């Protein structure tokens, strides 16, 4: 099974570039930027990366991202992730980035986008890995702040395919971002959002009805509502599921109880993703193999999951034919 998974061509549709920041690279970048981080060793980091919930993780994730300063830092972060894609036969990836995590600290939008997109261009040429970018709004900030980010993105519109919504879900429903999503769609961005990770099925409804999303990030709690399940199937929307993220953040208590197989059996279109691999204990292939073992998935299931990852990507229909 391990070799089968390694050899499967895959796409990754749910990945936060700031969440791919491995401790070794974090130490290196902190050192060259003369920034102190509160860890002295990889052991101390491992101890800190034990989370009770999403907020617990986010506090540490934003702290880690605070080391990123120059265009080269964003380039190195992104290229390092893309090398891991190449090594795992991840042929295409749709990378989320959180501009506000950086612009709030005085780093320009331009620095962030140029570093990330140059790495993507180089990876296409040197590693044969294609990518596109999803600019994510931080939902714990105001809609007005998101509008500022949308404005800042416009000179770089040709480099960005979609907009997303991430960070603290509870208390920050999709409805809060209704207007900025409308404006983002008008600018040509495809809308996606995290919904139903910690939030209820109502948040998924809002993301569909009020934000018009084309894909659901996580979506686990959709299973609480039969009507919602039917609606997601009717609209042919995929869920970007992240098994190791779900156990790390205690959205699911044990992989054996993960609803992924149930989702497939219900007819939902599911993909497997790593979310924040540096923090949650595994890249894409480990997500595939751990969930395979836990749920006894067959090769046919795995093939379907990998096929979905291309089918529900934002590649144009013609390009998809190069992968599936
Ligand atoms: C995230 Cl797992 C998760 N959920 C919500 N927002 C996020 N940002 C980075 N990882
Ligand atoms: Zn996520």
Automatic annotation (TrEMBL):
Cofactor stoichiometry and binding remark: Binds 1 zinc ion per subunit.
Needed cofactors: Zn(2+)
Swiss-Prot/TrEMBL keywords: Hydrolase, Metal-binding, Nucleotide metabolism, Zinc
Molecular function (Gene Ontology), one example: zinc ion binding
Catalytic reaction list: adenine + H2O + H(+) = hypoxanthine + NH4(+)
CDD domains cross-referenced by the UniProt entry: ADA
Name by which UniProt lists this protein: Adenine deaminase
């Amino acid at each position: 099974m391990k070799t089968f998974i390694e050899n499967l061509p895959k796409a990754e549709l749910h990945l936060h570039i700031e969440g791919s920041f491995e401790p070794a690279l974090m130490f290196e970048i902190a050192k060259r930027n003369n920034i102190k981080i509160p860890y002295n060793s990889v052991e101390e980091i491992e101890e800190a990366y034990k989370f009770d919930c999403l907020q617990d993780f986010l506090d540490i994730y934003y702290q880690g991202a605070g080391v990123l300063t120059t265009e080269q830092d964003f380039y190195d972060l992104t290229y390092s992730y893309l090398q891991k894609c190449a090594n795992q036969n991840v042929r295409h990836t749709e990378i989320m980035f959180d501009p506000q995590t950086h612009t709030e600290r005085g780093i320009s939008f331009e620095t962030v986008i140029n570093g990330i997109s140059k790495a993507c261009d180089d990876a296409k040429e040197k590693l044969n890995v294609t990518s596109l970018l999803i600019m994510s709004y931080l939902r714990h900030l105001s809609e007005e702040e998101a509008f500022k980010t949308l404005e800042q993105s416009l000179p770089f519109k040709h480099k960005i395919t979609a907009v997303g919504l991430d960070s603290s879900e509870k208390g920050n429903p999709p409805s809060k971002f209704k207007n900025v999503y409308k404006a983002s769609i008008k600018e040509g961005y495809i809308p996606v959002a995290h919904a139903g990770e910690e939030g209820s099925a109502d948040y998924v409804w809002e993301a569909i009805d009020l934000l018009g999303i084309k894909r659901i990030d996580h979506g686990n709690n959709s299973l609480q509502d039969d009507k919602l399940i039917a609606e997601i199937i009717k609209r042919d929307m995929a869920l970007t599921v992240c098994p190791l993220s779900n156990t790390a953040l205690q959205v699911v208590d044990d992989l054996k109880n993960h609803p992924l197989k149930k989702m497939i059996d219900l007819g939902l279109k599911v993909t497997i993703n790593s979310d924040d691999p540096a923090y949650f204990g595994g890249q894409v292939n480990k997500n595939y193999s751990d969930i395979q073992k836990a749920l006894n998935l067959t090769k046919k299931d795995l093939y379907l999951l990998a096929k979905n990852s291309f089918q529900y990507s934002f590649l144009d229909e013609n390009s998809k034919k190069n992968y599936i």
